[in-house]
Amino acid sequence: MGSLAAVRILDFPPPAWLHRRRRLLLDVLLWAVVVAPVGYAEASPPYTRYTLPLLVGKLLVLTVAVVASRRQPLVALVLAVLGSLVDGNFVFAIPVFSYLAGRRSATVGPAIMVFLLITAGGTALNLGLLGAGAATWFLLASVLLFAAVFPWLVGRYRRQQQELTDAGRRHVDALTREQRGAAERIRLRERARIAGEMHDSLGHDLSLIALRAAALEVAADLDDRHRAAAGELRASVSAATERLHEIIGVLREEAGASLRPSGETVADLVDGAREAGMAVRLDTAPVVADLPAMTGHAAHRIVREALTNAARYAPGAPVDVRLTRDGDRVEVTVVNAAPPAGPLPAPPSQGSGLLALAERVRLAGGTLDAGHRADGGFAVRAVLPATAAPPEPIGSAAEAGPTSWSEERQGPAERPVDAERRLHDARRRVRRSLLVALVAPVGFALVLSFVYYPVATAGTVLDRATFDQMRVGAARSELVGLPRRQLERPTPVDRAGCEYYTDGNFPLAAPTWRLCFTDGRLVSKEWIA
Predict the structure, then answer these.
(1) Among 75, 224, 367, 522, which is 20 to 30 Å from 318 by CA?
(2) What's the pLDDT score for residue 76?
(3) Are the C-beta atoms of residues 216 and 226 closer than 8 Å to each other?
(4) Which UniProt keywords apply (predicted)?
(5) Would you state the pLDDT for residue 257?
(6) Which residues face 368 on adjacent strands?
(7) 319 dihedral zone (left: phi>0; alpha: psi -120 to 50; beta)
(8) Per-position DSSP letters for 295-332, written without gaps between them
């Protein structure tokens, strides 16, 4: 516990034009990043008469993709994939737009559908129409996995992180509102108690006035004119008492009677504490005896609350109570030492007593400071006005309304339980996204390998024992165990009459053996590193 003070912090949104300028700058930067590989390739010689139109068309496609990446990021990704069919340099833009698709898309279903369509379309195009081999298909599928799927997962993870941050901020806001509401309820309860005390004291005084007026009304030595005036005074006082009851009395709590016995002073409080066994020392100046009503009530309440807390949390510890006056200010200090045997078992304090004290002191025009001391004790110090001051109206405008622009923007307040559930869900989604981002690429790679490997190795595996038994000079028809199908000839190799086989290496099934024939006879056999 420390100084009890409330600080209002107002934050304002950035201007709309500044937000638009920032978005435009980011889009221009994105456009420069994705255009650089394509522009550099087209700007390099040799040039043809189609170079400039192709360059303009490619830049137009990338510009449309950048513009669409804000609201339709999946459309931008599809444009980059389609552009890679014409120019391989579009591949550099695929990871960028894929990341943005994961970062800016709220749902997962459309992205999965797009990836499935790209996979199915690419498979049909390469294996069906273009007649590419399994190795080419595997290479393109791997590019799709690591250049599109993996960046999308990373973007999705970053989006979940942002949602977690927002959920955490909303949770903190909800808890802050709840604590502020609890403090406000305590202040209102204290104001109601003060109103009840005002009702009791003023009602008592008005009742005495009405009683004296009634005595004058029935006095035998009073003439009729004065007797009538006394009756009117008595009726007016009675009506004022009823109005006071209606205006202030309704604010009293169910246990509405004031907890302070009539006429009880700080010295009486100290005497009662001593009789209960507490070691209390009182040091009070005579000038503090004549104080305004609000200040006197506040000083009495401070001492009573401090003594109660000392008895509860520091049993057996000596307590010093001091009331001093300096000009137009009165200082009330209650200090207790550390408990000799430790504090008694008790539920944790919620600080409502100090909040109520702070509200009472504030309404009296003073300040309150309370907190632990270095020696383990506790101190409560209040500075109150020694002269009457105009009371602050209850429910002043300074305490009404939201405390920041962000609360106005968020609309209706969210309950802490809802905010906590939202935070829990956001944490769960972040953990799941991180797990998927780490595991999914490996799983997809394994799936691709298990799909590609049987296709690539079917009828092309030549084991080492069979290779060693093959004799150079033998006719091809005499070779036992020769696979029924050959692998594609490696691109850098251009040797006619040679056949290539694999030993079944996983997952690529790369060529391992080379058998060269001339006129149908084996002229050489080699192991390919």
Answers:
(1) 367
(2) 92
(3) yes
(4) ATP-binding, Kinase, Membrane, Nucleotide-binding, Phosphoprotein, Transferase, Transmembrane, Transmembrane helix, Two-component regulatory system
(5) 41
(6) 382
(7) beta
(8) HHHHHHHHHHHHHHHHHHHSTT--EEEEEEEETTEEEE
How are the residues of the chain apportioned to helix, strand and coil, as percentages rounded to the nearest 5? 60, 10, 30
Question: Minimal CA–CA distance to 524: which of 504, 502, 495, 503?
Answer: 495
Cβ atoms < 10 Å from Cβ of 13: 10
Query: How many other CB atoms are found less than 10 A from the CB of residue 374?
Result: 5
Burial of 90 (0-12, 13-18, 19+ CB in 10 A): buried
The predicted model gives 363-391 an average pLDDT of: 85
Tokens of 331: 């200082």
| Dihedral Cα 491, 119, 448, 444, nearest 10 deg | 130
Half-sphere exposure of 396 (CA within 13 A, CB side): 9
| Both tokens assigned to 310 | 């000392």
**Torsions phi, psi for 512 (to 5 deg):** -115, -40
Query: Are the C-beta atoms of residues 321 and 283 closer than 8 Å to each other?
Result: yes
- Ramachandran category for residue 277: left, alpha or beta (phi over 0 → left; psi -120 to 50 → alpha): left
Contacts of 321 (CB under 8 A, 6+ apart): 266, 270, 280, 281, 282, 283, 284, 303, 306, 307, 333, 334
Mean pLDDT of 69-86: 90
Rounded CA separation 45/422 (Å): 57
390 alpha-carbon distance from chain centroid:
43
524 residue type, one letter: S
Average pLDDT over residues 433-441: 68
d(CA 25, CA 39): 20
The residue behind tokens 């391992």 is 512
Structure token pair of residue 493: 């190799």
Pull the structure tokens for residue 344.
């008694």
CB neighbours (10 Å) of residue 177?
Answer: 18
What does the block give as tokens for 40? 């550099």
Mapping DSSP to helix (H, G, I), strand (E, B) and coil, where does residue 365 land?
A: coil
**Which residue reads 């192709």 in tokens?**
54
In this structure, the dihedral spanned by the alpha carbons of residues 260, 263, 265 and 271, taken in order and rounded to 10 degrees, is: -90
Give the chain's mean pLDDT.
77
pLDDT tens-digit series, residues 255-304: 444 445 556 788 888 888 888 778 899 988 776 667 787 788 888 889 98
Most confident of 2-16, 83-97, 289-303, 338-352: 83-97
Q: Rounded distance, CA 70 to CA 420, Å?
A: 31
- Three-state SS string across 210-250, please? HHHHHHHHCCCCCCHHHHHHHHHHHHHHHHHHHHHHHHCHH
**What is the three-class DSSP state of 335?**
strand
